[in-house]
Design a protein that fits this description.
Rossmann fold, alpha/beta, single chain, 7 strands
């Protein structure tokens, strides 16, 4: 792709699998120094080893996005290791499908804590370092569930809708400070999150309404390609955008 990301320091949350993993691999291949952050430590270290095995630069650090102290420690570790931070990619997330009548408060709180509050915490901790960087940007992974309703996805929709509007609020606030903030809203992407969904007892006709015109799922690399572009100087005039990558599901 040749996006000239050499010299960039990128922190990727949720890097152990799915979109986060694909993003970390691509950004490293494009020359960025990548901090791989996740709670899944074994997979995380395997990813960092894979990247360094290609001659690129990466390191792994445990991060629980729901824990403010863990977030502060992880961001501090990134900046100590690489001398700064120029791009934050928030790919950590959870989902699932459940009828609203069966949605327990504990599950609601868990989804909001990881998807929305976790994005707030990492953005907040990273901001001082981003303000000091050239060409700084934040790329948040929202969802088409953040811009349209989906049956059986109340907590997920609420959390991802929050991510989309948090993105736009920050883009407005930080525009004159030269920090770009954008979001990507994937549709169905073949990740462990999708593969592990339990659809037993749910109305498949309602789920079918989420289908896109291509009748197919995307791949993590489809999203990673746009993350890489938005992190590069080629996207210097883009901020406050929420891009759907969904095979036309919201067309």
């Amino acid at each position: 792709m040749d996006l000239h990301l050499g010299g960039r320091v990128v922190a990727v949350t949720g890097a152990a699998s799915g979109i986060g993993r694909a993003t970390a691999l691509l950004l490293a291949a494009e020359g960025a120094r990548v901090a791989c952050l996740d709670v899944q430590e074994a997979a995380l270290h395997a990813l960092a080893d894979e990247i360094t095995g290609t001659g690129r630069t990466a390191f792994a650090h445990r991060l629980d996005v729901t824990d403010p102290e863990s977030v502060e420690v992880a961001i501090a570790a990134v900046t100590a290791r690489f001398g700064g931070l120029s791009t934050l990619v928030n790919a950590a997330g959870v989902g699932g499908m459940v009828q609203f009548a069966d949605l327990k408060l504990a599950e609601w709180n868990r989804v909001i804590a990881i998807n929305l509050t976790g994005t707030y915490l990492t953005c907040h901790a990273a901001l001082p370092h981003l303000l000091a960087a050239e060409g700084a940007s934040i790329v948040n992974i929202s969802s088409i569930a953040g811009i349209k309703g989906q049956a059986y996805s109340a907590a997920y929709c609420a959390s991802k809708g929050g991510v989309a509007l948090l993105t736009r609020a920050l883009a407005n606030e930080l525009a004159r400070k030269k920090v770009r903030v954008n979001a990507i809203c994937p549709g169905g992407v073949m990740t462990p999150l999708i593969a592990g969904m339990n659809l037993e007892g749910l109305d498949m006709d309602l789920i079918g309404r989420m289908q896109n015109p291509t009748f197919s799922l995307g791949q993590p690399d489809d999203v990673a390609n746009l993350v890489a572009y938005l992190a590069s100087d080629r996207a210097s005039y883009i901020t406050g955008a929420c891009y759907a990558i969904d095979g036309g599901a919201v067309a």
